[in-house]
Design a protein that fits this description.
By secondary structure, the chain is mainly β. The protein contains two helices and nine strands, in the order ββαβββαββββ. A hairpin with a 2-residue loop joins strand 7 and strand 8.
């Protein structure tokens, strides 16, 4: 499977915990003129083909990524089946209305599955969130 990867630490040059200033310096954040007050979502300069948005906290740095076209290293993406999800993550746990899987370094993947048993959303979240 080709395409962008949302890895256990982040996406491209953006990593969980990275400060807004450091994230801005990568040149990947669109509309990054204003630092977050509390938490704010930012889109990427490359558009939304890989990641819909990145959430940045003024105190915690990058806390999450919401995938659009990106896939996990285990090749799960929006549109994957629940069976594929369970096969890729045998230790998959229930989390609210969805599922979670440890990604490493204290981070987790969160998956929402729709009524067709397909992954409807995919997030990478750090150990601290907004």
């Amino acid at each position: 499977m080709s395409g962008p990867v949302l890895g256990p630490n982040g996406y491209s040059k953006l990593v969980l915990g990275m400060s807004f200033a450091d994230a801005k310096q990568t040149g990947l954040l669109a509309g990054a003129d204003t630092p977050p007050t509390g938490c704010a979502d930012y889109t990427l300069t490359e558009g939304t083909a890989g990641v819909r948005n990145v959430t940045i906290s003024d105190t915690l740095g990058i806390v999450s990524f919401e995938a659009s076209g990106a896939h996990t290293p285990e090749r799960i993406r929006v549109g994957s089946t629940k069976d594929e999800l369970e096969a890729a993550y045998p230790a998959l746990g229930k989390s609210g209305g969805g599922y979670s899987a440890a990604a490493g370094s204290g981070s987790s993947y969160l998956f929402m599955v729709d009524d067709r048993n397909r992954v409807a959303s995919l997030l990478l979240v750090g150990p601290a969130t907004c």
